[in-house]
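Q: Here's a chain of 246 amino acids. Please give me its 3D structure as tokens.
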Amino acid sequence: MRILPAIDLREGRCVRLYQGRLDAETVYSTDPVAVACDWVQRGASWLHVVDLDGAFAGRPRNMEVIKDIIRASKVSVQVGGGIRSIETLEELLEAGASRVVLGTMAITNPELVAKAVEQFGEAIVIGLDSRDGEIAVEGWAATVAQGTIEFAKKMVDLGVKRVVFTDISRDGTLKGPNIEAIRELAKSIGIKVIASGGIANLDDLRALQELEPEGVEGAILGKSLYNGNFTLEEALAVTGEDVKSC
């Protein structure tokens, strides 16, 4: 199972939010590029970068920082937050992003998602941000009356091969991932799932790893790493991922 350290960007800083709330922010670093390089030096082969300002604004706000992270880290980078046009998507891929995560755009413009998947294939990932079983959009500020699995199946029909699933009620809480929801999603849609939200300890990673046969291929780690609940090296040892350095 792949481990993806998270780098959430707000006003050029590396932060974490509690359940996506802007009023519940913890700043971990004013130098996100240095944070990225540190994760890579410690073994990360993938990074998950989110433009939080972009998610709320509907357009990228930390694009230059993201590009700096891609250039400096020299590993695979998955980027999300505020990507709501083909032009933004192309700009990120041309800058070296390996995958882009589409959230609000997938709800508001599924035709554009189909076009993006046709053109860029598995570089397109759908973000399934779930609150009480419904899809959240616009930086998790709103939900739409559509079930998570129902929506995911529509994305599969468009050719999407991979999703990032986040249970918002668990995000930043260190209360453990929603294993049952992740299992149900993976079984229902039959494509690759990356789990995010609530991972607190190595046992949580072991529980997610047991879902690999169902299609769970990765875990995004944020607060648990930044708070020192365990090290990246320990996480990689649990999942058996090959350690790679710069």
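Q: Can you summarize the key feature?
A: The CA atoms of residues 86 and 112 lie 7 Å apart.
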